[in-house]
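Data availability (excerpt). The following record was deposited with the supplementary files.
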Amino acid sequence: MMNKLLILLTAIMLSACQSTQQQQASNQNANESHYNAELAKQLGADQYGMKSYVLVILVTGPKDAEITDKEQRSELFRGHFANMGTLAEQGKLVLAGPLMQDPPKRGLFILNVTTLEEAENLVKTDPAVKAGIFDYQLTQYYGSAALMQVNEIHKTLQKTKIE
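Predicted structure:
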């Protein structure tokens, strides 16, 4: 009786191991069948589908409270949005947006650059940063290379352009 039980348990364990190995092979094949080497290369993805960026947090700048003229502020913000559009067209600005109700944090950029110096040079082209409405904090960010497609997808969703 004990031998039969041992044989049965061994058979069950072997079957379970074989099933697990088949599932792992199936998962690997499924992952490989979805992998697009050409797109991964185009987007700069590493083996994990990730890449390096620089995250920029825009914070309230030292001159924000001093610039009260509505026309001047409006012109600076038009320049801010135009600059973001230019950087996006160049493939440098991956993602941008305001941070809601989190003063002094005002907004964020994810830039498609690898160094903080490159990011700082791009951020300094923003008229609202130059004027002191915004200041900024920079940090390295490692995220999905799929973020590189956000701007193209966004164009298909945007009914009204921000100006």
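Summary of structural features: Strands lie at 50-60, 93-102, 105-111, 134-144.
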